[in-house]
Structure formats: C-alpha cells, structure tokens
C-alpha cells in the first residue's frame, strides 16, 4: 500500500521545487542568499522567507493532521484572530506574559475542542463544522477587542514576533519547536498510524479498536493550538490585534501548503515536514514576486496555478489518461509538482 | 400527510424563524413593520440572494462553490474597467461579464468532472484566480458614472399599498421564481437531485452526469456574475475586494434554508428565507443602534449551529422510525 510515510524518493519533488524557487529568486536578486548578523539576530532575504513563512507553516502543521483524517479546518484564520485579540487586550490591561500566553493558547485549545466535538461526536462534515467558527470566530475576536485595533507596547510579548533566540528569529524557533513536538507525538507513538487509519476509513478503524472520537478531537485541538501560536506570532510582530484582518485567507494558504507538500485531501497519508516545505515554497514564491518587481497582485494567480497543477498531477483521472512510462508509480500516488513552482517564480 | 409534513419540516421551521424574528423586531421597534423595511431588506440582500440560488443548485448536486464572492468582485471590476476606461455601453459590458462569469463556472465544473477532483479545492483555486484577475485589472475602487446606472437605480415597481420594489429586488425575486421552476419542474432539476443523492446510481440511471456537473457550476458562475452586476448597481463602483466572504454567507443561507450539505435534498425557497433571516439580523442590529456589527457574525454562527443540529436531529428521528425521506 501507499500508506507508509513518504520515503526519500517521494520527498524529492518538494525539496526540488523549493530549491528551484530559491534559485530563481537568487537569479532575480543576487543578494538573496546573503545573510548578515546584526544586533545578535540574523538578517537576509532567506531568513525573511523563513520568518514570514512561519505563521502559515505553523497552520500547515496542524492542518496536516486534520487533513490526514480526511477533514479540513476552515476556522484557523479566525482562531488566529481570537488568540491575537486576547493576547493584545490582556497585555494592554497589564497582565503578565505567562498569563497572556496561557489564555491565548487556552482559547486556541477551546476552539479546537469545539471543532473536534462537532466533527467527532455530532458527526458534522468537517467543512461545515469548522465553517461555524470561521463565521462566528471573527465576531468573537471583535467582541474581545470591542471592534478596535488593539495595540500594545509590551516588549515581552513583542519578543515573540521580532525577538531572536541564538540569533534565529523567534517565529522560526517556535515553528521548529512545534514541528518537532508534533513529529515526536505522531511518529514516535502509534498516534500517527491511528490518524492515518481514521483518514482511510473511520468505520473500519473504529472496528479495529481505534478510539476514533478521541483521535479526531485530538487533531482538531492540536490544529487549534497551532493556530493560536500563529496568531500570537502575527500579533506580537505587528504589536497589535486586528480582529478583521489577522489571519485572513491564511486557512487557504495552509491548505495549499499541505497539498503542495503532497498530503492527499482524501486523507490517510501525511508528511509533516513536507507541509512545512510547502509553506516555504509558497512564501519563497511570494518573496520572489515582490523581488522581481511584479505587482503582489499576481501572487493569487500564481498560487492558483500551482494549486491546480499539483492537483492535476495528483488526480487519478490524469494518471489513467497518460501513457505510463516504465517503472511508473502506482495509480494515485503523488507526482512531482516541479513544473508549476519553478514557473511560478518568473510569472 | 405526515410524509409531506416530514419533507417540508425544515422549510417550515426556517420560515417560522423568519416570521417570529420579524414579529420580535416589530414588537420592539414600531417602525420595523413597514413596507419600507421590507423593500430595503429585499434590495440590500439582492446580490446575496441571487448568489445563494446558484449555491443551492451546486450544493443540491453534492458539490460546493467557494469562488462566488471572488467572481462577484471580478465582475464589478470588469464592468467598471469596460464602462469607464473602455467606454463600453453598460449593456454590452453586462453581456460580456455574464458570459465570462458563466464560462468560468462551467470551466470549473469541467475540471471537477474530468479530473474527478474535490469541488472544494477546485473552486478554491477558482477563487484565487478570480480575485487575482480582478487585482490584475485594477487594485483601485473605480466609480461607475454612466447615466444608465442612475436610470437603472431609479427604476422600481411601486404598489398602491406602499411597497416599492427596486430593480435588484425584482431581479432577485425573478431569479428565485425561475430557480424554483428549474429545480422542481424540469429534467435538469430532477437530474440535479439524483446526482446529489448518489452520483453512481445517477450515472447508472442514465443521468448525464458530465453535462449536469458543468451546467450547475456554469449556472452558479452566471448567477454570481448577475449578482456582480447588481452589486455594482448597488455600490456604483467596481472593486476587486468587493463581496469578500460572500461565499460563506451564501453557504450559511443554504444551510439555514434546510438544504442538506451532502446534496440531494433541499429547497430553493428555503435558501431565499435563509438570506432574509441573515438580512433581518443585520437590520435588527441597525435599528437597535447600541449593538455592534460583530454581533451579526456571532448571531449567524449560532443560527448556523442550531440549524445544523436541527437537521441532524430530524434525520436521526426519521432514520430511527424508518421514515422514507431520511436518506433524501
């Protein structure tokens, strides 16, 4: 079966695409790989790609788990707005950093719990279950900020967005930490296997003894937590919470990153690191379009192009249509999405 | 008799919510129960209602269309650019916009059918493309100053008892009426329900699955284009960020209206009532004056949740009794 974790040969397309986009950026902008150390923190375009890609990468980590169970979480953008609103408002009210962080993360956990219960216990389709929070979530965030854009001056919270740890920017550090913890949870235990089992067939995995409600609630809670961390980073970075625009459309970027990373929307198989690579490919393309002097408006079309080509390459119908070369992969496996991404960097 | 009651129960509940909601509003604000409020409710939500009709068809067929808000935005920009910068006559621009929007939807339907891809993700890409195309045309908000726009905005059907229906309101009512006929009294409608009920059985029964899929997404795109025209009339401008999030408002209206999100069961009229309920919440908040706009989102979220639970509950009860429409 194709259910095992992607082997090294499977990862090549994603890494190849990332390298291709980075090289294209380098051709456009010779200083692209230049990294300098300033005030104890690394600076440079490459660092910028990592730093700016961090929120989507975090969302992609949580979203990968959800998509692996054949679900989807549309509410992550709204959850980011909620956690950011809580963090900014509480900081403004003079709460200490640990209390602020605890409250923001708890909000993300609660949001995830809500989604998880709707999907696992009430058995509502994931896209609809999470739509409720997507619609109401921004209203809740606005309720917290009372409709204002809440700004704060606390350097302690701002450190999460613009500080650095061992010269590495904090958003990158946090993303690596969350990725490492998640990978440990799902790959060092049987949890990952159970997630994949639920994604392949919820009924039969329940029959085989998997506690499907617990697994499902767990992945949505984890996704909510990841979104809360992403919300904290964005809020800390701009030193303010904008309930209307924080994390707007990022749920779609996160889904795109997961799909580019080769995780099937039909569930049952996932690659955590590859989703993060997918997020970096998207961010590198964004940066490349900016550097090339093209209007940022082209970003959306390029993203759509990449999404479509990746999906077309994954689609079983196309695999059937194409004459199969010798030693072809079995039907339904992912084909390399190299062409779209390299084309995307030079629109 | 009970069978009919069962079948129409979601529709009855939705309509009851609208009526009770309206009565509560009227009890609280004496000026609420006026034809003026009703007329505004219809005009302000006309573009949403037209889009939601298209979404109902898509969802009845078992799919979803996330691109409609972006198509509305793109249509308004296309109209503004053609009329103001290209010097086109608005009617010609309307025709081009409708063809473009309908063709765009049909193309998405084609991709969904030929490559057997999830509608969710194909129309998501469609959303990126439509918004992106709008941005590429112009990122500014372009005002439309053609005299025909003024004339169209002044057009209205006036009734003796005081109701004044604007052109957008009339268009929406016309679209809803046509959609009811299309859904319940034509071959296309029957195919749609069959497709949403079970794609494989529909195919085996001889339903033209390919044609129906392309047509339903084409229709959704076409109606989104029409909604874009109405939106540009309403705002008198073209803006690529216009109608952001409308896809979710329309899906919400469809759900509140009692249509089953897995496809195959639901009513166009329910969607229309769902749109009016959302409009009613907004009007209530405007009347109240002390409530802030974010309560709209929370209230709609709560309603969405309640109606989904209601649907689930009804289906479970029917299934438990062995009632016939449980699967429908």
TrEMBL record, chain A:
GO terms for cellular component: plasma membrane. It is a multi-pass membrane protein. The keyword Lipid metabolism does not apply. This is ABC transporter permease. GO terms for molecular function: transmembrane transporter activity. Keywords: Cell membrane, Membrane, Transmembrane, Transmembrane helix. It is found in: Cell membrane. The chain crosses the membrane at residues 12-29, 49-67, 101-122, 214-234, 246-266, 273-294, 300-322. It holds the Pfam family BPD_transp_2. Its main location: membrane.
UniProtKB/TrEMBL annotation, chain B:
One of its GO terms (cellular component) is plasma membrane. Keywords: Cell membrane, Membrane, Transmembrane, Transmembrane helix. It is a multi-pass membrane protein. The chain crosses the membrane at residues 7-29, 49-82, 94-115, 121-144, 165-185, 214-234, 265-285, 291-310. The keyword Ribosomal protein does not apply. Pfam families: BPD_transp_2. It is found in: Cell membrane. The keyword Membrane applies. Its main location: membrane. GO terms for molecular function: transmembrane transporter activity. PANTHER family: ABC TRANSPORTER PERMEASE PROTEIN YPHD-RELATED-RELATED, INNER MEMBRANE ABC TRANSPORTER PERMEASE PROTEIN YJFF. This is Sugar ABC transporter permease YjfF. It comes from Azospirillum humicireducens.
């Amino acid at each position: 079966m194709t259910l095992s974790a992607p082997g090294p040969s499977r990862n090549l397309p994603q890494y190849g695409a990332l390298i291709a986009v980075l090289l294209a950026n380098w051709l456009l902008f010779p200083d692209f790989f230049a990294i300098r150390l300033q005030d104890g923190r690394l600076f440079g375009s490459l660092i910028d790609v990592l730093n700016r890609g961090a929120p989507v990468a975090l969302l992609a980590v949580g979203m990968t788990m959800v998509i692996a169970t054949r679900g989807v979480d549309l509410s992550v953008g709204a959850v980011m707005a909620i956690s950011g609103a809580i963090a900014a408002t509480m900081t403004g009210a003079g709460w200490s950093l640990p209390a602020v962080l605890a409250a923001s993360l708890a909000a993300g956990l609660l949001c995830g719990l809500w989604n998880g219960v709707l999907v696992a216990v009430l058995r509502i389709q994931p896209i609809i279950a999470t739509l409720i929070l997507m619609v109401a979530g921004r209203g809740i965030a606005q309720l917290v900020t009372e409709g204002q854009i809440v700004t704060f001056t606390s350097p302690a919270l701002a450190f999460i967005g613009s500080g650095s740890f061992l010269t590495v920017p904090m958003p990158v550090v946090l993303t690596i930490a969350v990725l490492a913890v998640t990978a440990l949870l799902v790959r060092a235990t049987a949890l990952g296997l159970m997630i994949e089992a639920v994604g392949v067939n919820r009924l039969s995995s329940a029959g085989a003894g998997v506690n499907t409600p617990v697994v499902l609630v767990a992945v949505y809670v984890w996704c909510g937590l990841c979104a809360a961390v992403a919300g904290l980073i964005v809020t800390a970075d701009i030193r303010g919470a904008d309930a209307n625009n924080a994390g707007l459309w990022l749920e779609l970027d996160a889904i795109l990153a997961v799909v580019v990373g080769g995780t099937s929307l039909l569930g049952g198989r996932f690659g955590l690191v590859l989703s993060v690579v997918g997020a970096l490919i998207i961010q590198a393309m964004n940066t490349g379009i900016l550097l090339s002097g093209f209007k940022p408006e082209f970003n959306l079309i390029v993203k759509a192009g990449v999404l479509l080509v990746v999906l077309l390459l994954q689609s079983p119908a196309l695999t059937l249509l194409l004459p199969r070369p010798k030693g072809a992969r079995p039907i339904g496996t992912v084909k390399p999405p190299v062409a779209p991404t390299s084309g995307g960097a030079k629109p | 008799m009970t069978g009919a009651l069962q079948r129409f129960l979601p529709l009855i509940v939705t309509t009851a919510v609208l009526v009770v909601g309206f009565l509560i509003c009227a009890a609280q604000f004496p000026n609420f129960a006026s034809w003026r409020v009703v007329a505004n409710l219809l005009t302000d939500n006309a573009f949403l209602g037209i889009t939601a009709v298209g979404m109902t068809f898509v969802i009845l067929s078992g799919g979803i269309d996330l691109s409609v808000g972006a198509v509305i935005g793109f249509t308004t920009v296309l109209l503004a650019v053609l009329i103001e910068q290209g010097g086109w006559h608005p009617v010609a621009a309307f025709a081009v916009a409708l063809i473009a929007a309908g063709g765009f939807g049909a193309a998405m339907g084609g991709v969904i059918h030929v490559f057997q891809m999830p509608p969710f993700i194909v129309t998501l890409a469609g959303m990126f493309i439509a918004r992106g195309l709008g941005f590429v045309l112009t990122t500014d908000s372009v005002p439309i100053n053609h005299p025909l726009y003024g004339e169209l905005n002044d057009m209205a059907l006036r009734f003796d008892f005081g109701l004044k229906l604007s052109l957008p309101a009339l268009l929406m009512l016309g679209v809803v009426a046509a959609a009811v006929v299309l859904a319940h009294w034509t071959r296309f409608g029957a195919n749609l329900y069959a497709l949403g009920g079970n794609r494989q059985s529909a195919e085996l029964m001889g339903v033209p699955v390919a044609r129906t899929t392309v047509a339903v997404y084409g229709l959704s795109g076409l109606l989104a284009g029409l909604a874009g025209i109405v939106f540009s009339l309403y705002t008198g401008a073209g803006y690529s960020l216009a109608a952001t999030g409308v896809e979710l408002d329309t899906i919400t209206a469809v759900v509140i209206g009692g249509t089953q999100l897995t496809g195959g069961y639901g009513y166009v009229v329910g969607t229309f009532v769902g749109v009016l309920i959302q409009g009613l919440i907004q009007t209530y908040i405007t009347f109240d004056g002390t409530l802030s706009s974010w309560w709209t989102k929370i209230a709609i979220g709560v309603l969405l949740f309640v109606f989904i639970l209601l649907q689930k509950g009804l289906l479970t009860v029917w299934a438990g009794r062995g009632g016939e429409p449980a699967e429908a």
